[in-house]
Write the structure tokens for this entry.
Amino acid sequence: MDHFFIILTGILVITSCTLTGSFLVLRKSSMLADAISHAVLPGIVLAYLFSGAQPGTFALAGAAIAGMLASLLIGFLSRKTTARPDAVIGIVYAVFFAIGIILTTIFSSHVDLDQECVLYGDIAFVPLDRWILDNGIDMGPKQIYPLIILCLVTILLFFMFIKPLTLVTFDPSYAGVLGISSVLWSGLLNVYASIVSVFCFNTVGAVLVVAFMCVPAAIALLFGTTFRKTVLLALIFGWLAVPLGYYIAVFFDGSIAGSLSMVLGLLLIPALILKKITKNSKPKIVNV
Amino acid sequence: MAFEWSANTFWAVGGCTLAGIGAGIAGSLNYLRSRSLSGDVVAHAVLPGICLGFLFSGTKSVFSLVLGGIVSGYLSLYLISFVQKNSRLKPDVLLAWALALFFGAGIFLLTLIQHTGNSAQSGLDKFIFGKAAALTIEDLLLMGSTSLISVILVILFFRILKHYIFDSLFTGTMGLSSLFVEILCNSITVIVIIGGIQALGFILIPALLVIPPVIARPYITTFKTFVILSAVIGAAICFIGSVLSLGFESLPTGPVIVVTGGLLSIPSLIKLKR
Amino acid sequence: MKESAIDINNLSVTLSGNLILDNISVSVEKGMLTGLIGPNGAGKSTMLKAMLGLIPVNQGTITFFGKPLNEIRKQIAFVPQRQEIDWDFPATVEEIVLMGRFPFTGFFKRYSSEDKNEVEQALASAGITNLKNRQIGKLSGGQQQRVFIARALAQQASLIILDEPFAGIDAATEETIREVFIQLKNNGKTVLIVHHDLQTAAEYFDRLILLNVKIIEEGKKEDVLKEENLISAYGRKVKLY
């Protein structure tokens, strides 16, 4: 039963991350996902500080502000200074993350976060922390519920806003003339990515949020024909990777989050080989 | 704050400062090639190599760890360019992918090692965020030598580096010398990162490569001054940061150095305003 | 009184401290094929982006068919330079052209059969029906251009603005696309094109605007392409074959 909950958690996390991250990947902002997932750390630490042992959902949503601030700062510095944009990302996220680590260390007695949890979460402990009702009924692991809500909300938002988001991603100028502001929509996307990062932080840690956001889409892009099919394919790869990675972790007694990320990354290689094989068998049609 | 100069602190601060030199040099090269984030990937990518080195050698011998780290660091860069050439995937996605693959594998192996309860593995922990206070003579030798190697390489191949980097910026012509320069810059990056990981840990060592060139940028006139100034600034940030971190003993070194660097980059960022 | 599709008054734009457009006032006549020409760096792309609200301006008022931009956005289709687009984006030709139906569906409604019909017709008018399910990454330059034109048609825009549509296209394809533009004009659309090639400008367009930070001249090609105007714009004599 514990296995089931852990895998379910993984699936919820990867679904939310992939749906959000696919847009980031297509906007060529994959490293921004990396930045946001690190930058939320100080926000999370402060959330833990203010709300005691386990921060409530609202506190966590507030932590997303740190991610928003980071992406705003990155955007601002990229536009308003001549510093190279990739260097800007590197500095901002490292500084935010460093501040987060310092806060974690200073308040380590008050805050239930340790360095390792920050890195790779504690998905293995999800089944242990149960939600027990007053009359004694066991509702299952506590952490599952916010993740279920997050997943459902993400799916909803994805289908609601797929049109403006794809328009802005593919052709921001055309979209701009039609009145769909690229700045607004990419800003909203970054905000949501911050929120997703914060919620997934507990379970998979900072560094692996970016894996879940970007790698499924990367693999799917090798085969993708339409945007929707690409995202669906990404989800399928993600859903396959979760149980696979989990059982490998169990077998070798290693970190589950690490194993999931590694398996996802490895999936790219057979996918690439498959793609090359099928490409060579089809002749290319060129007509003007 | 309780910092005292002693033999230990002297070596610790000295080692970190040396690491800063190498980082500044590597960072300046990457900055000009717009490859600041590949340092990020390499820093994460050395972890599985280090773990495998530990597993194969059974000891925490610096040699096997460093060798493992170099191999996996290189492998990550090679894989990125391989996949890029053979698919339509863009560089930024591939950076994220390599990070996921290698760092995931690294964490997986690290926890695997930790769970075996191998007593020698405790030394691996300081790789995460850096612990200046825990640096051994071996570590310092490593840090010093990586910086030295990077300085030598840059001096030796100065002209070719200068030509290639500016050439690729302005004319984009490729040739055999450009492949060599690619390998050279990547090598310096990998070596310097391995050296610096002891001081800052692998999550934050990329920042040490990224920050000094940005601070140096408004003041430079030539390629030579850029590289030298970055090296000096890298050293300065590490010096200040390691002193502070040793003074506040509970604080890990990496974050303190990074925050120091971040603060010091503010005036330069203002100067770089459009 | 000629009806204008675009009226620009006193438009000035500064970018990175440089004055790119200096107090421009010009009109683009409705139902005409107008070419915006001038040397490199003259501000042609900037003028397009400024009047479409894509970049900030120092000053200036711009109206389209007598209305401000916000009231008439749906009537305008902008086609940016082809290199600004990521052609590896996973999408078929049909999907891109469907984007043109956005003004009719808004964010939330699904594409209806009417939308799909409009797309079919647009593809036919642009001569690319056979490419409907083709991945956009597998298109030639000329085909890419026609996809954008089809999108503008599906949008039923009255004003179509293109930034260097002929760049990097071979002569034969250029002819084909040119014919599509003529067809657009014959259907009452107004087409404004930033064009890079002075030599073909006279042939392709009904009206010309010669720009170099300021408007050098605008109107009929005989007036615009006079030697003194070309010297003002290009800084030296330019031979026209």
Q: What stands out?
A: Chain A has ten helices and two strands. The radius of gyration of chain A is 20 Å. Chain A touches chain C at residues 26, 28, 160-161, 163-164, 166-167, 169-171, 173-174, 176-180, 221, 224-227, 229-230, 286, 288 (CB under 8 Å). The longest helix of chain A spans residues 182-221.
